[in-house]
Amino acid sequence: MRWLDLVRFAWRSLWFARLRSLLSLLAMAIGVAAVVLLTWLGESARSYIADQFQSLGTNLIIVLPGRNETVGGAPPLLSETPRDLTIDDALALTRIPAVHMVAPLAFGVAPVSYRAASAWPGQRARERECPVLGSTHAMLAIRHLTLATGAFLDGVEPHRGAGVCVLGAKVRAELFGDTSPLGEVVRLGDRRFRVHGVLQPMGTSLGLDVDECVYVAVADALALFNRASLFRILVQATSRDGIDAAKADVRRILAERHGEEDVTILTQDSLMNTFDEILAVLTKSVAGIAAISMVVAGILIMNVMVVSVAQRTREIGLLKAVGARARQIRAAFLCEALMLSSLGAVFGLVVGVSMASVAGGMYPALAKPVPGYAAFAALAVAMLAGVAFGVLPAQRASRLDPVQALSRR
Amino acid sequence: MITLHDVSRVFEVGDQTVRALDHVDLEIGAGEYVSVMGPSGSGKSTLLHILGLLDRPTSGQYLLEGRDTTTFDEAELADVRRMRIGFVFQFFHLVPRLTAEENVELPLMLAGVPPHARHERVRALLQAYHLDERRQHRPDQLSGGQRQRVAIARATVTRPAVLLADEPTGNLDRASSHDIVATLEGLNADGLTLVVVTHDPDLGKRARRRIKMVDGAIAEDSTP
Predict the structure, then answer these.
(1) Tens digit of pLDDT for each residue in B86-115?
(2) pTM score, two decimals?
(3) What is the 3-state secondary structure (H, E, C) of chain A?
(4) What is the chain B residue with the closest CA to A15?
(5) What is the ipTM, given to two decimal places?
(6) Contact A326 B74 (CB under 8 A)
(7) Which of residues 148-207 of B touch A (CB under 8 A)?
């Protein structure tokens, strides 16, 4: 039997039972579309998070006090710090050749309040809790912050307080409304700071809303929160290739200064890899769950094929009488099952890809193409399911006794 | 051309054994016109199925054109059915979704004959059976007589050695019956061996050789 005849023969019988064929084809289409869409969503989330990490800064090395594994696991929340991470530590790191910039970072939460000079007596100051970050001018470049107006801790000596602050966009809006904050004095905890600059709205980066933050000089922040240790040191390597060398030097210098290795050094890469791996696993498991629906569709196809064999018993008997080999009958029914599953898969692929592109148009953050491997795998699994679940009915058809099959009414 | 030697066919029905064929010896020469008659359950259908290689004897030997068919495997049996044997059934057994032409083509398609060669042969055949205007019709658009002619065309498209007809007129009116019998006898006149199983004494009497079966055995084999 010729290949093309086989396909035509199978197609004729699928077409003859159009509704039944269409319904089982639809089940497979839904399964494939689900796999494609969920994988696409996972991949889009992955690249979205990668973008977020990029917005954090480029070629970043993050030093935090306390020793911990560098890959995986949460940063130490309750661990004890053997030695403080100091401003001098940060300054020492600037001498590493592969290091471009260093920004010390102190962190705390303090109430921020502002009382306009023109306020009448009794008017309450506007106040809110804000994350306060202490750093230097280098922070602006390292974290890719952009100023809306004013300056960002320009010329601030790391060891000296400056009494100035830079407000996030939201803080500015809430404290000052439409009036210009430049030169005004705000109160952070029990200290007074003059506003020197305001940041552009930037949105959330890694769970911290940059627009809600207030930036001050690092020495001011340490004094404000009465701390000796920095929260982090952010180090920017000169290039991507320099990250490893810079990281080794950072480790060596801090070990020398502290007498032991008591800091945790994270690179943006390793962090990103961790997230990448987590999301990849998540994507795969979600896609795997969706693939179950393809198996269900496969069983539906088997069901349809079993019914088809039962209804066409006389035809199978006739085919045998006119000289069809068991192998040919098996091939004909297997071909039908395969056509059902692959037509469904192609249909599902088209639906999935177009839904992804429509959703990508609505949410530009997700505007990524459907990953090729997902499309390929969905097609392959669908066809595999078609064959696997087509074998049983095809086998059953090929084994029918021709005499009994012909005498069936 | 056909030699049955001590052929028995035993069915197990529940805990009963039914001897549908009981030590049958039969010889049919090329070009013969044989009718097989007998009451229901006499084994005439079983005989036809065994002659047509749809069923195998429980014991005994069946030689078709000098070859022992009892040693054939499934694929060989299928090939012999396709190329050397034609079937005509009471209920036509046409594939309902295929056109008349496609139904006739079936054996050639299964044999892997290229479409072009197939079409030529099928068209010529349909013309000979006065069906060329009905080529594109499906079985449900054909009359009983036309359906049976399509079935005969299908049975003869591979130019078989023997044509086996099981009650070929059992489902037809008089006029169509006459037409079909004439067609079959025409084929026999051209040298095709014809075996007709029937209840109908009028049809049975037309054959040159008449076999009467009773209880799985040949009771009468006459050539008047």
Answers:
(1) 999 999 999 999 999 999 999 999 999 999
(2) 0.73
(3) CCHHHHHHHHHHHHHHCHHHHHHHHHHHHHHHHHHHHHHHHHHHHHHHHHHHHHHHCCCEEEEEECCCCCCCCCCCCCCCCCCCCCHHHHHHHCCCCCEEEEEEEEEEEEEEEECCCCCCCCCCCEEEEEEEEEECCHHHHHCCCCEEEECCCCCCCCCCCCCEEEECHHHHHHHHCCCCCCCCEEEECCEEEEEEEEECCCCEECCEEHHHCEEEEHHHHHHHHCCCCCCEEEEEECCCCHHHHHHHHHHHHHHHHHCCCCEEEEEHHHHHHHHHHHHHHHHHHHHHHHHHHHHHHHHHHHHHHHHHHHHCHHHHHHHHHCCCCHHHHHHHHHHHHHHHHHHHHHHHHHHHHHHHHHHHHHCHHHCCCCCHHHHHHHHHHHHHHHHHHHHHHHHHHHCCCHHHHHHCC
(4) B97
(5) 0.93
(6) yes
(7) 154-155, 158
